[in-house]
């Protein structure tokens, strides 16, 4: 679900209606639905109450260079390679 519909969803009833409809359509087709651009606890709460389970946005983390991410996750990557 695009960020433009998620932003201020707690105050914009039209956006809430669109998000709800998209989520229901995705569920009826057995498709996972991801809400993009979640930046506030209020947005997260509304989306969670709608039953959405997957989120992306600054509330959870900020973009970082690939090299930084790789450096921070080397242990996890090594562990997963050992498991496979």
Tags for this model:
84 residues, two-stranded parallel sheet
What does this structure look like?
It is a single chain. The chain is mostly helical and about 80 residues long. The protein has one domain. It has helices at about 5, 15-30, 40-50, 65-70, 75-84, and strands spanning about 35, 55. A two-stranded parallel sheet has the order 1-2. The longest helix has 16 residues, at about 15-30. The model has no long low-confidence stretch (mean pLDDT about 90).
| Low-pLDDT residue spans | none
Mean pLDDT score? 92
Order of helices and strands: HHEHEHH
Largest sheet: 2 strands, parallel
The proportion of strand residues reads under 5%
Write the layout of secondary structure elements.
Elements lengths: L2 H4 L6 H16 L5 E2 L5 H9 L4 E2 L10 H7 L1 H10 L1
Parallel strand pairs: 1-2
């Amino acid at each position: 679900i695009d960020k433009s519909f998620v932003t201020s969803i707690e105050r914009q009833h039209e956006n809430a209606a669109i998000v709800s409809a998209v989520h229901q359509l995705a569920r009826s087709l057995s498709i996972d639905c991801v809400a993009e651009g979640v930046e506030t606890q209020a947005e997260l709460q509304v989306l969670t109450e709608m039953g959405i389970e997957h989120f992306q946005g600054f509330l959870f983390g900020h973009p970082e260079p690939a090299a930084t991410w790789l450096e921070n996750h080397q242990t996890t990557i090594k562990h997963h390679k050992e498991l496979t």
